[in-house]
Amino acid sequence: MSTATFSPDTRVRFGGVLASEFTKLVTLRSIWIIAVAMLAAAALVAMAEAENSTAPGVDPLSGVDTMLSVFWIVRIGTQLFVAALAVILVTHEFSSGTIQTSVISVPRRLPVLAAKAVVVVAVTTLLSLLSSLVQYAVTVPLLDSAGRGASIADPAILKAVLADALYLVAVAVFALMLATIVRNAAVAITLVLAVLYGVILAAGVLPAIADVPGEYYFLSYAADMTTSALYNPAAAADIVRNLVVTIAWLVVPGAVASVLFARRSV
């Protein structure tokens, strides 16, 4: 009698892996909670900023400039939501043990991580666009009542929408790779918080590097300035440095995460 042995298919197509990762994401209740909470937070913050900008006694900005301000404030405030989404997609599998099924099905492993990254980028982009629409919807009535309307088709506004999506994608990919490295949701979120908001605490404290303030090398600052350059000429002054720093924050953790994911036991 011969004994049947299980041999994982090494020819698994990336499309199948991608579909599997997307299914995992949409079946997690916590992901939907995060998405709804992000959109709700975006609406509340946008409304508060619009009311503040149109309040009596406040120096009036144009409708477009007000929208740009709203978009920027909301993306800084809601970036934690996309980071949490990316972290949960990875750490949930490690905590539940389902990651073993994934790596058995795809022995080479790296396609699994790549598929997670693609899914995170796609979902983050979608959430960012929905967030921008929500912000515009709650802000425009207030601007119209103040006689400062703004069209969503305005080139500056469209560029700001794109900038928000790119910034949040960078944050999500960084969080995904960091979570892959540490495998623990609480630790990953803490580290992401330190990187994203630590720039505030580090201002004027860290030593300068090559005559550049230390806080300028944080991901949140570099990515913010890089993406804001799409609609704000002032942010483009050091675009090369900021772009290089942003890429480094993504490539280095990505490389470490890839090596560990491919070689470390699960």
Q: What separation lies between the terminal Cα atoms? A: 33 Å
H-E order: HHHHHHHHH
Structural class: mainly alpha
* Shape designation: globular
Estimated helix fraction: over 70%
Quaternary form: single chain
**β-sheet strand percentage:** under 5%
Number of strands: 0
Unreliable residue runs = 1-10
Average pLDDT number? 86
C-alpha Rg (nearest Å): 21 Å
Main sheet: strands, sense, barrel: none
Number of helices: 9
Identify the notable features of this structure and list them briefly.
mainly alpha, globular, disordered N terminus
Please explain how this structure is put together.
Helices cover 74% and strands 0% of the residues. The chain is mainly α. It has a domain of 179 residues. The longest helix has 36 residues.
State the gist of this model.
The chain has 266 residues and is mostly helical. Helices cover 74% and strands 0% of the residues.
Secondary structure layout plus pairing:
Blueprint (H helix, E strand, L loop, with lengths): L13 H13 L2 H25 L9 H34 L2 H7 L4 H36 L9 H28 L2 H18 L16 H10 L10 H25 L3
Helix pairs in contact: 1-5, 2-3, 2-5, 3-5, 3-6, 3-7, 5-6, 6-7, 6-8, 6-9, 8-9
